[in-house]
Specification:
The protein is of the alpha/beta class. It has 12 helices and 8 strands. The protein has a single domain, classed as TIM Barrel (Alpha-Beta Barrel). The protein is globular and about 45 Å long. About 45% of the residues are buried.
C-alpha cells in the first residue's frame, strides 16, 4: 500500500482583508514551524494572494487560489487566468467547489476544462465533488459523485493524476455544523479512489490524495483520518483562525 502524505488545505472563502491575511500568515508560520510530515496549503481570496506570497515565500506552506477561468487570456471581464494565479505565487487552485457549482452555476464540463488548464499551467488542482442533501436522501450519492469524478478527470494519465487532489465535500455538511460520519466520508472517498482506478489504474489511484471537506474541526479530524481512504481535509471556517487551524493540523499529525 502506498504511503500518502497527509494534506490539509484551508479555504478562506470570501473572508479576510490584506492586513488580516498578513497577520494570520505571521502567526501561523510561528505555530507550525516544527510541523513535519504533512502538506499544508492556504487557499485565499485573490486580493490576499500577493501579501501571503511575500509572507510565506521560502517556507513549506503552499499558497492556493479558490478559482480560475478555463482560458489562458482574453475578453473575460472579471475572470482570473492560471498565469495570473502563478504570478501571484500560487502552487494550487481549488476547482469546482460546491459553492461555485450551486451558486455560480459551474458545471462538470467547466470543472473538467479548468482542471486540464490548471495542469497544463503547472498548478496543482484540488478538484471538489459532492452531493446535495436531496441527492443523498434519494440514495443517489454514489452514482452522482462517481459521475463527477469521471467527468472531471477523464483522459488524465497517471502523471497528471499525481498532481491532482480530489476533495469530497457533502454539500449538506458545509457550513451547517453537520458532519458526515467517518464511515459516510470513508465510503465516498473510497468510491472516489475506486473511480480513479477505473480511469487510470490502481497504481495511480493509490497515489492520488483524497480529502474530506465539510465542517472539519480539530475535534473530528483524527477520526476522519483514521479511515483508509481519507488523506486530509479541505477546511473552511476552522482555517480562519491561525491558532485553531494549527491545532487542527497538530491533531491530524497525531492521528497519522
Amino acid at each position: 500500500m502506498v504511503k500518502r502524505v497527509p494534506f490539509i488545505a484551508g479555504n478562506w472563502k470570501m473572508n479576510k482583508l490584506t492586513g488580516e491575511a498578513q497577520a494570520f500568515a505571521r502567526e501561523f508560520k510561528a505555530l507550525t514551524r516544527e510541523f513535519a510530515g504533512v502538506d499544508i496549503a492556504i487557499c485565499a481570496p485573490f486580493t490576499c494572494l500577493t501579501v501571503l506570497r511575500d509572507e510565506l515565500q521560502g517556507g513549506p506552506i503552499l499558497l492556493g487560489a479558490q478559482n480560475m477561468f478555463y482560458e489562458q487570456s482574453g475578453a473575460y471581464t472579471g475572470e482570473i487566468s492560471p498565469a495570473m494565479i502563478l504570478d501571484a505565487g500560487c502552487a494550487a487552485v481549488i476547482i469546482g467547489h460546491s459553492e461555485r457549482r450551486e451558486i455560480i452555476g459551474e458545471t462538470d464540463e467547466t470543472v473538467a476544462r479548468k482542471t486540464r488548464l490548471a495542469l497544463e499551467a503547472g498548478l496543482r488542482p484540488i478538484v471538489c465533488v459532492g452531493e446535495t442533501l436531496a441527492v443523498r436522501e434519494e440514495k443517489r450519492a454514489v452514482p452522482h459523485v462517481r459521475a463527477q469524478v469521471e467527468k472531471a478527470l477523464a483522459g488524465l494519465g497517471p502523471d497528471d493524476l499525481s498532481r491532482v487532489t480530489v476533495a469530497y465535500e457533502p454539500i449538506w455538511a458545509i457550513g451547517t455544523g453537520r458532519t458526515a460520519t467517518a464511515a459516510d466520508a470513508q465510503e465516498i472517498c473510497a468510491l472516489v479512489r475506486g473511480t480513479i482506478a477505473g480511469l487510470a489504474g490502481a497504481a495511480a489511484a493509490e497515489k492520488t490524495r483524497v480529502l474530506y471537506g465539510g465542517s472539519v474541526k480539530a475535534d473530528n479530524i483524527a477520526e476522519l483520518l483514521g479511515t483508509g481512504d481519507i488523506d486530509g481535509a479541505l477546511v473552511g471556517g476552522a482555517s480562519l483562525n491561525a491558532a485553531d487551524f494549527a491545532e487542527l493540523i497538530r491533531r491530524a499529525l497525531v492521528a497519522v
